[in-house]
Amino acid sequence: MSILDSLRPAAGLRVLVTAGGAGIGAAIARAFHEAGSSVHVCDVDRAALDRLTAETPAITASMADASVAADVDLVFDDVRGTLGGLDVLVSNAGIAGPTGPIESIDASAWERTVDVNLNSQYYFARRAVPLLRQSTASPCLIAMGSVAGRLGYPFRTPYASTKWAIVGLVKSLAIELGPSGIRANAILPGTVEGPRMDAVIAARAEALGIGVDAMRERYLEKISLRRMVTANDVAALALFLCTPAARNLTGQAISIDGNVEYL
């Protein structure tokens, strides 16, 4: 195999993307579909799923809350029917969580952030691993982390805590699953353009009592390249991690962030 050929994922990979209806998840789902994979997504947002499947009918979908174990079980019932197995899990579900000083964060908001961002990783991994063990296509588990999983993030402690935990989960799974030929990596996006980031910036601006434009400029000043990344940048990295060129990449937390220097 030439080096150029090794940069292409094998055709026919069976891929599950959680929170795949919109944003980064949808970009990843579309990228794998364009590369010749069979793709199934799940999402809590029915309208987003309907838009995605209308645009790309070959992508199949399940309505599910990734933080609810019973919903996850139903997703895997669908995966068996639509994909017949699994070669790649992209565990992408996550929420921004509350913004504010630790003493003002409501316990229910903290718990919801942990449920969606961290517990969902466990629910999907425990169901995916038996299927990945049966794969002969260099199976991969990709967990979506964040630059907040390598840096401290004041006023965003629930979010940062879960993203640091994801790195620990992936590094542990890489050791646990490596003898079975399963690779596990985390992608750590930085500031990603889009409506979700707009909302985060607005909430942070309110918490600090400054204008939204000023808050946006503060974000850009922290990035060495002085620009945000896009959902397609993240999707390209996910695709690369499933190519033969990445066959020895496991246990890694890979930042794609323009080098965020601090948060």
TrEMBL record:
SUPFAM superfamilies: NAD(P)-binding Rossmann-fold domains
Keyword Nucleotide-binding: no
Keywords of the record: Oxidoreductase
Pfam families in UniProt: adh_short_C2
MF terms (GO), sorted A to Z: oxidoreductase activity, acting on the CH-OH group of donors, NAD or NADP as acceptor
Recorded family membership: Belongs to the short-chain dehydrogenases/reductases (SDR) family.
Entry protein name: SDR family oxidoreductase
Natural source organism: Piscinibacter koreensis
